[in-house]
Structure formats: C-alpha cells, structure tokens
Design a protein that fits this description.
heterodimer; A: twelve-stranded mixed beta sheet; four-stranded mixed beta sheet; B: mainly beta; Immunoglobulin-like; Maltoporin, Chain A; 22-stranded antiparallel β-barrel; 4% helix
C-alpha cells in the first residue's frame, strides 16, 4: 500500500511563509518601534530596452502571445488607464510578425483586443490548437530582430478528486485538497491554476505554482491549496477589502465552486516559471540577492514560451 | 612542493643547528593573576641581562632556556603591575609568578618601566588581543557588552552595521572566521540576528583575533581566528558578579571548591523583553502567547591535579527562542536556535621544556522550527555537530626557539534544511533527515626562531586530510535540474578525499629597539562553508561541507607591516598592507532553491568563484595610563568573480568597504569616574539596484543592474559612556552605574532600502518609492553592575 504523502513542497512553503513574518516581527520587536523610515531618491542606472515575451499554449486552445517592452523602474505608471490600449502603446510591441509551428503546420498569429487580460492586446491564431505530445516553435520578428523559442505539451495527468475542508476553528473557510497519482516515470512537472465561480480566467496558485515530482515520484498525492486573489496586487487594491473579505481572503468558502486547471509542463518551462515566480516574489525583499529569470527565448528577449497539458476539474466546497 | 620540503627541513633542523654544546638551564613556570589565580595568557617575560624573552602560552605557562648565570626576570602584562625578581639560574628552576592588577581605585599612579614589546618584537602580525576589562569600559547598545561589536572597531574587521551577525575580516566572508570558545568552534556567534553576541562578557577572560600570518596551530578558515578564552574560576576566594541592564540581566558565581586546587565558575544571562511586553498584550489578542527571548549559560571547572597536571572542563549553552501562536488559524510555532559546546582539556608539563594540552571537544549548532496546524505537525531543522580531539605541544628546546606541534581530528555532521512532519489523520511517512558526514585530520609544526638578534622567523607547516564520507545519496542532475542518476554510498564510505598542505611563514626584522618590519605569508584551505541566499547572515543559513562537487575554499595572504612604539612603549603604532587572493568561494546560483532537499542535494545549487582583497590598515593604540584607546583606519578593496553570476563580470563583494575609521577613547577622570567614547565612520555597503520593470502574467518583475554597483550612504555614529563607581574602594561589595548613549547625534544610518509599491494600476494610482530604513536612533541605557 502506498503512503499518501501530504505534499512536501507545500509544507516548506508553510514553513517559509511563517518563518519570514516571525523574523520580521522580531526585527520590529527589536527596534522597539523606534526604527526610522524615510523616502529617498535613488539615481538608477539606465537599462537596455528589451522585448518581453509572454507566450502560453494550453492543450485544446490556440496560442496566445503577449509582446511588451520593459520600462525604467521609476517610470510613472501613475495615471495610466489600463483599459485604454493607446495609453499603453509605448509598452506594447504591436508591429511584430509572430508565428507558431508544430513542425508541419504553421500559424501566423494576429493582434487581438481582449479586455479580460492584461495587457489587453495579444497575438493569437485560428488554425493551430495545442495537442499533448507535440513540440511547438515560436518565432517573432520585430524591428529586424528574430527571437525564437521551443516548448512542448507533455501528456495530460488527470486529477483523482478535489475536496474542500475547513481550517482550524473556522467552520466555513479552508483550503481545498487535490488528489492525484503521479505517473511511475519520473520527470513529471505540474503547474496548478484555479479560480472561483464568476471569474473568466484561471490564476496560478500562490508561489510556487509549479511542482516537480522528484519529491513524490509515482506516489498518490494529497495537496492543499489556498485561493489566490482575483488579480495581482498591482491591479488589486487590498486596502478596499471589507473586514469580512479580509478575513476570508485566501480561503475557499463553503458554497464556493472551485475550478482547477491542472497542467503538465516540460522542464525548460519549469525552470523559466520557477525563476520567474521567485523573481516576482523576492523583488520586494531587501535582504535577498537579486534573482534572474531563466528565459527560454533566444535572441535577447525576456520572458518565456510555455506549453501546458491541461486537465480541468471542479468541485463544490461543502 | 620543493619549497614545502625546505620549510620542513628548516624547522626540523633549527634546534640542532642552533643548539650549543654547553650546558643550559631552564626557567619555567606559570604566570597568574594574584587575586583570582587566573592564568595570564600572553604575559611577556624577559631576562634583563641578555634580553632573552618569551610569552606565556594560553595556560599561562612559560619556559626560558639560557646559559647558567645570575639573571633578573621581568614579567609584565597590560593592566598589571610589573614583576621583577633576581633568579639564580645555575640549575633548572621553577618560578610561578603572580601579577597584581593595577588598581585605579586605590589611586596607584602607574609609573613602571613596563616594556610592552609585543607590538614590535613578536613575529605576529594582524593580531589583536583584547582584555575584557577594557572592552567593558566602552559604550554599548542596550547595556550589553559585546566583544564582537568591539572587534569591529579594529582595522580590517567590519560588520555591516546593525542587524548583521557577520564579521568580515580583510575582505573575507562571515563563514571564514574560526570562532573558538575554549577550543570549540562556535558556529553562530550571535543572538537575535547579530544584535548581541553569544559571549557573555562576565564569563570571558580574553579575546585574541588573528587576521594575518595565521599560526600553524590554527586552520580550516580563510580569513581569521577569533580565539576566546573563558575565565577559569577564582582559585582564591568566592566572588559573585552581575548586572541589571535594559533588556537583560547577568549573574556569575565563581570560587574555589578547594582552595588553589579546584575552582568553578558559572555564568548566566537572559533577556526579558518577553516578560516586560507580556502585560501589554491583551488577553484576547490572537497573538497572545507569542514572544522572544534568549539566554546563555557558561560553566567551567578547573582542577589542578598536581603542579604538572591540570584539567579544565568547560561548557557553553545558549538559545534564542521564538514562540508564535495564532488562535484564529490554529497555527502555533516554536522556533529556536543556538550553540552548545563542551571541552575537556588536560594540561600536562612533561618537563621544564615541554608542555602539552590535550582537548576533547563537542560542539553543536541547531536551528529548529516546530509548527502545528490542524493536527498536522511539522519540523524544519538544520544544524552542524562536531566532535574532535586535539593535542598541542609547546617545546622550548633552547632560548630563541619555541616549537609548537600537534594534531587535530574533527568529525562533522551537517544537517542542512531538513523537514519532517506528522499527521494524526493521514498515514504519513516523513522523509529521512538528510545528513552530510565528513572528517578532518590535521598535523602542524611551527618554530618561532630568533635567527639573529634582529631577525625572528616563524616557520610553520600545516597539513590537512579531509574526507567526505557516507552515508550519502547523491542525485546527479543534468543542466536543467532533472535527476539522471542516483548514487548510494554506505556508512563511512569514502566519497571524496582531499589532502592539502598549508605553509605559514612570518618574519620580523628589528630596525632598532622600538621599531620593526614584519612580513608574512599564509596559505589556507577551508572545508566547510556557510551558504546564504540572503545578503545578510541569518540563523537559518546552513553550514555545508566540501563534497565531491564543492571543492575546498582556498586563500593566500601576503602581508607586510611597519611597527613602532613611542613614548616608552606607551603608544603602539602599526601600518600593515595585505594582498589576499581567494579561490573556490561559494554562492548560490541565481534562482537556487535551497529548500528543495528531497531527492536533491543542496550543493547542486551552488557555484564557485574567485575573490581578491587588498588594503592598508593603520593602527595607533595606547593601552596604559589614564587615557587609553585607539585609532584605526582601513583603506580596502575586495571583489568577486563568478562565471555564473553577474554574467561572469567581476563585482564588488557585498562587504567591500573603501574607508573604515574607528576612534576609541577611554579616560579615568578620578578613581571613581570613567568616561569613554567611540566614533565610527565607514563607506556605505554595496547594493544591487533595480533598473527596469516588466510585466509577465500580470505581475511585475524587476531587472537588476550590475551586482553591488551602488552604495548606501556612509555609516557613522558616536557613542558615549560614563561609569561611576558607587562603592568605596575598601568595601567588599563593589558596584557601579554605567550610562551608555548609543548613536549620540541620532544619525539615521541605512539598514536597508526597499521599494514601496502603493496604489494600483486599475485606479491609475500605482507608484513606486524608494525608502530607506534605519534601525537605532539615539538610545540611552543605564546598567547597574556589581561584584562581591
């Protein structure tokens, strides 16, 4: 009989997410509320302008590629209307040639406006659909430079079930557990997306949303996950949450429909996503060494091109 | 290699070459404090007639071999009255010396012909010895005397300001310092992230820091040795000593169980901000039950078996403890870390010329986090545990030679980042703890040799055999981090051996009585290292051994210096320049995930590179008289080059600091009033700045500029202290009040910079602002100390 292992990585997240505030509170206790903060002006060096690629290909869906530019750290994003693409035009690469090929079929992608995403403009196609087991090449030609990337869609791994459970003394709030059996061959890597009823798009679970099966290869897994905010903090003002919303934040609530998209990804995508989430996570931490995202795009662009073998499932929290 | 052979020949040949056929006589004995019987290590002795001299070793033992005759022996030690006695050395003689402490209270004005020649006469370079009595006079933060903080006031030694436990010596990292407490390694020398050191000032006798020309008896670290000696316990009378401070209290009891035969000392310290804060946390607060404290306990037993044999048993135990409770989410945690060390030492005097010390030691550093939520318990722990055996011999064949030789064996067990868990609901099998085992054995020999009247050489050779042993499971990874092979090694299996010689050379040339030039060359290998993903040292940083993947760190140091004493040796001055290239330094890869330890090895995520450090240090010190103190100035550079970091380009090390100035002064106004001041100025620490932002998956990602290419504003601070002795000098009960003012002009020194993101893009209010955080403004504290 196989042991059911409460998933280990998640556990480390718990440890880390709890240790960090503990350490921080120690610093606070220590400074005896006397530490002093002030605004300062820092003259930043000038960086190079680069193309940023955010390419996603889910099985059963057409490719979607967002092309943007990086921008100076202190650029005033203030006052920009994010629903107006014109306001964003200087951050967007709207004049690129983008194509995706699976070796036999090539799809030339075109610009689409979709306000449910940010940025609201991306390149997509109408002939090619992601299929597990295939490899896809992305080629971008922009202002005379060519960028390429390759990704594959690994075979889909199905989830066995989802089960919500209340936490501690809370009777209507708690995490949701997912159960699945990792295939016997090692090297499976997953990324977990989820959403609550009423939302259009799935969002990745809290970092890391990627799991490498090297710690649980071939086992039956139970893995608890919490509810991500509907938007990332730069778009989401947590200060406006009501007291109740604040208390329920990160929990699934009794009565919720919980939608999960469980994806298989390849190792190159894993390295990119892991380092991306790490970089996004640590960029606010003054004590961490700066980390770099391992892009899988050649030609000097930032970002990545990721294929997902997606399995969708939902449950009712009860 | 041919050079090494040469050194060996020189050392071995030295005694025979210089030995004279005529009969010699030997004067030997111990130097002790007259009041307590404590050994006075480093006391200097010489014969007036021929100016032959020596220095008492760690246990106060000395030996001088000369032509038979009538001599006058002079023994001196800083802070003590000089001792002078005529000795008839027609035959071997034992003379135990007891020095009396210079008493300010008694109003004794210090007029002696004390010759403090250590500065100019010894071959030692980059070595500073601090007596706890002097350290205690200086201003401190929150009333806690801290030797590590005092050391950072010396040239070539830096801290990164407040909130960092690391000591950075001559461009080396915080793990490159060998910190020994009575011979046992202390792996984490600080409490509460470096705000306080683990060394309780009441239990410590002296501190010796070596930053260049490391003698052959020390090894295993690249940058420095910090040799800390605990008090031995008063052999003459019982004594109680203690202090009440703003955040902690101390109590020390010591005395003779059998007078002049068996003495004990026990010393404890505990902080109490948790106790003070408790009444202010409301009963309904969800965080009730959370708190923090640390404590230390030192104890030592000192048994004089006979005139020739002594036993010392000493121990240290300290813990930082955090408790955290959140009733709402049913989450509770206990987090603690700390060191435990034990040493058993046996001094034996085989003859008047041969002294030995055998040490058995144990040391353990632990970091543990126990969490409990929803009947699910988990434990995160890491640590390092050593046990070892050392034998050191001092051999004084003839005057002009002091030979030291010995051997050391250490067994290390490392446990980097382990997690175990238990659940009452699920049938769970926790993973086995991951351990790394290694063994380190070394032998050394050195000779401190007066080659001519002006030239003294210290020739040394150390050789280390290191082995990385099983039981161990190696996960072999490909470039993308996928496991391609798994290798199993059985218990004790030899996975990778390393054999490394370390020649050490130092020379002193006496220009005239008060001035000398010195030079030294040191080669060091380091087999264990601290891996940190953060830019500051934290208690959960893990120690890792050299493995078959991680090769030992290596450094060489060349130092030259000029030393001069002025005003009858009242003033010691020195200028030292050094150049220190280093190889195989370690760092984590970009984006490394050291927590990923299941079916992975932490050393898979490390990268190794080169470093270089060079600089000049100026030091002016006055250790006697009403006025004493020092001025230290360092001009230094240190950089790093890692093929995998910063795109392979050389960058300034985190602790590269161009200018570093410390001024320390203490003045006895009257026998009852003492005032002191400390001023420090240092170039700001390096920092990596963000340059660009970009969006990925609706998140902001930062792109960084060249590593460590920016600097914080300079660090400077003035501290003052005044001590008033409350009791009359004749009284047995002695007490004093100390007022310390830390950061007198409340300079807001940068602790860190962060970028505060506020508002959000949907509302068009998103904004980034750089903010600088400083820790301590002006902090006055009063401490009451007593001694009975």
């Amino acid at each position: 009989m196989r042991h059911i292992i409460k998933f280990y990585l998640n556990l480390q997240n718990i440890c880390q997410s709890h240790i960090a505030p503990l350490m921080a509170s120690a610093m606070v206790i220590l400074a005896l509320a006397q530490s002093c903060e002030k605004d300062i002006t820092v003259d930043l060096p000038k960086g190079e302008k680069k193309l940023v690629v955010d390419g996603r290909l889910f099985s059963g869906e057409p490719p979607r590629v967002w092309l943007t530019f990086n921008f100076p750290f202190f650029t005033p994003l203030q006052g920009l209307d994010i629903s107006d693409p014109n306001a964003w035009s200087e951050f967007l690469a709207l004049d690129a040639q983008v194509k995706v090929s699976d070796g036999s079929l090539t799809d030339h992608l075109t610009l689409t406006l979709d306000n449910t995403y940010f940025p609201p403009v991306y390149y997509t196609g109408d002939t090619l659909i992601g299929v597990p087991g295939k490899t896809y090449t992305l080629t971008i030609i922009h202002q005379g430079r060519t960028y390429t990337a390759m990704t594959s869609i690994p075979p889909i791994v199905a989830l066995d079930s989802l089960r919500w459970q209340p936490e501690g003394q809370l009777d209507s709030l708690g995490p949701c557990n997912l159960y699945f059996t990792d295939p016997p061959a090692s090297g499976n890597i997953y990324r977990l997306f989820c959403k609550r009823q009423g939302y259009v798009h799935y969002r990745p679970i809290f970092d890391p949303s990627v799991l490498d099966d090297q710690s649980f290869n071939g086992q039956k897994i139970e893995f608890p996950f919490y509810r991500p905010d509907p938007k990332n903090f730069v778009f989401f003002n947590s200060d406006t949450l009501t007291e109740q919303e604040r208390r329920e934040r990160f929990y699934w609530k009794r009565g919720d429909s919980i939608y999960v998209r469980f994806c298989s990804i390849d190792r190159v995508s894993y390295e990119y996503l892991r380092t991306f989430e790490d970089a996004a996570n640590t960029s606010g931490n003054p004590f961490s060494n700066p980390s770099t995202v391992k892009s899988n795009i050649t030609g000097g662009a930032l970002g990545g091109w990721v294929g997902y073998g997606a399995f969708d499932i939902w449950t009712l929290a009860q | 290699m041919r050079n090494l052979v040469w050194y060996g020949i020189l050392i071995l040949a030295a005694p025979s070459v210089c030995g004279q056929p005529t009969k010699k006589t030997t004067l030997s004995g111990y130097v002790k404090d007259a009041a307590s019987g404590e050994a006075l290590l480093g006391a200097s002795l010489y014969l007036k007639e021929n100016l032959k001299g020596t220095t008492a070793n760690t246990y106060g033992f000395y030996s001088l071999t000369v032509e038979p005759g009538q001599y006058t022996l002079v023994c001196s030690f800083i802070g003590y009255e000089n001792f002078s006695q005529s000795v008839d050395l027609t035959q071997d003689k034992t003379l135990n010396i007891e020095l009396r402490r210079l008493s300010v209270q008694a109003g004794v004005v210090e007029v002696t012909d004390e010759r403090n020649k250590q500065n100019t006469e010894s071959t030692r370079m980059g070595t500073v010895e601090l007596q706890m009595e002097d350290v205690k006079k200086l201003p401190v933060l929150f009333g806690e005397v801290d030797i590590l903080k005092t050391l950072t006031l010396l040239p070539g030694v830096q801290s990164s300001g407040e909130g960092n436990s690391g000591l950075y010596v001559r461009g080396g990292g915080p793990d490159q310092n060998l910190i020994l407490l009575d011979g046992a390694t202390v792996y984490n020398a600080s409490h509460l992230f470096g705000f306080f050191s683990v060394f309780n000032s009441d239990a410590i006798k002296s501190v010796n820091l070596v930053k260049a020309g490391m003698p052959a008896q020390y090894g295993g670290r690249l940058s420095s040795v910090l040799d800390i000696t605990m008090k031995e316990g008063n052999m003459k009378r019982w004594e109680v000593e203690g202090g009440l401070g703003a955040i902690a209290s101390r109590l020390t009891v010591q005395g003779p169980v059998i007078k002049n035969k068996l003495a004990v000392i026990a010393s404890g310290r505990r902080t109490y901000f948790d106790v003070i804060a408790r009444p202010f946390i409301s009963k309904n607060s969800p965080l009730r039950g959370s708190g923090y404290y640390f404590y230390d306990f030192n104890a030592k037993i000192n048994y004089r078996i006979s005139d020739k044999d002594r036993l010392f048993l000493s121990g240290y135990f300290g813990r930082d403890v955090f408790t955290f409770k959140n009733r709402e989410t049913a989450f509770s945690a206990v987090n603690f870390w700390g060191n435990a060390t034990t040493t058993l030492r046996w001094n034996h005097q085989y003859s008047k010329k041969l002294f030995s010390n055998v040490t058995a030691l144990f040391t353990d550093y632990k970091f543990q986090f126990d969490g409990d939520q929803n009947n699910f318990r988990f434990k995160l722990f890491s640590g390092v545990r050593d046990y070892g055996l050392k034998a050191d011999f001092n051999y004084y064949p003839v005057s002009g030679h002091e030979i030291r030789f010995g051997a050391e064996y250490l067994n290390h067990r490392f446990e980097p980042s382990n997690v175990t868990f238990a659940s009452q609901i699920l049938d769970v099998k926790p993973p086995e703890p991951i351990r790394y085992h290694s063994n380190e054995a070394s032998v050394y020999i050195s000779d401190d040799w007066d080659a001519t009247r002006r030239l003294r050489l210290n020739l040394g050779l150390r050789a280390t055999f290191y082995a990385f042993n099983g039981r161990f499971v190696r996960y072999v990874k490909d470039a993308l981090g996928a496991t391609v092979d798994t290798l199993y090694y059985g218990r004790g299996a030899l996975i990778k051996p390393y054999f490394r010689p370390e020649p050490r050379l130092a020379a002193r040339f006496l220009i005239h009585e008060n001035a000398s030039v010195k030079a030294s060359y040191t080669m060091n290998w380091q087999y264990i290292q601290l891996a940190s993903r953060a830019t500051i040292s934290l208690p959960f940083d893990v120690w890792l051994p050299t493995t078959e993947y991680v090769v030992p760190q290596f450094s060489q140091q060349v130092a030259v210096g000029y030393y001069q004493n002025f005003w009858e040796d009242m003033l010691e001055a020195s200028v030292e320049a050094y150049y220190k290239p280093m190889r195989n330094l370690i760092e984590f890869q970009d984006g490394a995930d050291p927590a990923q330890t299941l079916n992975s090895n932490i050393d898979n995520t490390l990268v190794q590179g080169k470093g270089k450090a060079w600089g000049v240090e100026f030091f002016l010190r006055k250790s006697r008289g009403k006025w004493n103190g020092w001025i230290g100035y360092t001009l230094a550079w240190t950089n790093r080059t890692f093929p995998q970091l910063n795109e392979g380009r050389t960058f300034w090390a985190k602790y590269d600091r161009r200018h570093d100035l410390s001024v320390v002064a203490s003045y006895d106004i009257t026998p009852r009033w003492n005032v002191s001041a400390v001023f420090v100025f240092a170039t700001g620490n390096t920092l990596t700045l963000p340059v660009n932002l970009y969006f990925l998956e609706e998140r902001l990602v930062t792109e960084f500029a060249e590593r460590n290419s920016y600097r914080f504003a300079p660090y400077h601070r003035l501290d003052l202290a005044a001590t008033y002795v409350l009791s009359k000098p004749q009284k047995k009960f002695h007490s004093s009040l100390t007022l310390s003012i830390y950061n007198v002009y409340s300079r807001l020194n940068p602790f860190f910079i962060y970028y505060n993101a506020s508002g959000n893009l949907t509302e068009g209010t998103f904004r980034l602002q750089a903010r600088q955080v400083s820790l301590f403004p002006i902090i006055p504290t009063i401490t009451w100390n007593f001694k009975y």
